[in-house]
Task: structure prediction
Amino acid sequence: MIGNLFTRLTATAVAFGMATPAQAADPGPTVTAIKERGTLLCTGHNGSYLGFAEVDDQGEWTGFDIEFCKALATTILGSPDALQIIPVSWAQRFPALQSGDIDVIIKVTGWTQSRDTELGLQYGRTYFIGPTNVLVRSDLGAESTADLEGGVFCINAGTSIERIVADYMGARGISYEALNFEKGEELRAALYAGRCDALAGFGPFLAATRFNAPNAEDFTILDEVLALEPEGIAAREGDDGFIDIINWMVSALLMAEQNGITMANVDEIRANPPSASIERLLGVSPGVGERLGLSDDWAYNMIKAVGNYGEIYDRTVGENSPYKLPRGKNHLWTNGGMLYPLVLD
Result:
């Protein structure tokens, strides 16, 4: 009887993965190709998308999305320099991924049903909560979108903003004219030249656009929020190993912030981890990499290279950047936001 019970319990444990050590995972075709190439091919912008993907005075790509490209390159290849940024437009990002010209889309890409089901995409977890707002010319005296009846809206072509504005204004019976632009520079130039009454877009982008205007006081961001959009990292459909890596990369950045682990102190904390979960995160105890087909020190290397989520946010679009954008919903749940790490067991 005891022997039979032991046999049944052992079989159950094996079925739930409890009795055997973790086996090295197959990271999938995309990660295999990245490792063979030695470089991650990640999205940039055909111009500048302020705060998220822009080229600095030294000709280097910077921005929130670029930092996540660096984080992913470090996760897979061990270095943020093992990265090639491929400039693509909003419309080009999807065919570029499908054709293999890029490995991944990290370009504040809204997670929508049509993209998820019709474009051959597979999304990782949300890494940014994007509010859609409206920037208006201050001299119009507009206090809400209702005051913009018949106005001209500048909108980035090929983005979900087109649909969001159409849905929002249509539901309220507010007529408007859409003036679409492929490039952000053209859109901003049209706004600054007075060709548009308003610019609809992500709140952070609007704040950066206002900041860079010849006179910031000429423009006002309405308090009205048209929509909240979850921004996800997109890969090709069916590459589950790659999506696992993307999900745990985002979670590790959030877990590091929640536990006060930074670029500056990660070595100190790794030498004396305060908990078993931090031991696993930083690769002190084995398993965190093997399950993903990576080295166990991938998260340590990533945090050492780019910092935690809060550090990335602050230096690219937040308080330590020129844009000074509040985090809002992009705070951790512990600070009233919507972001949280997954459970690392």
The longest strand covers residues 121-137.
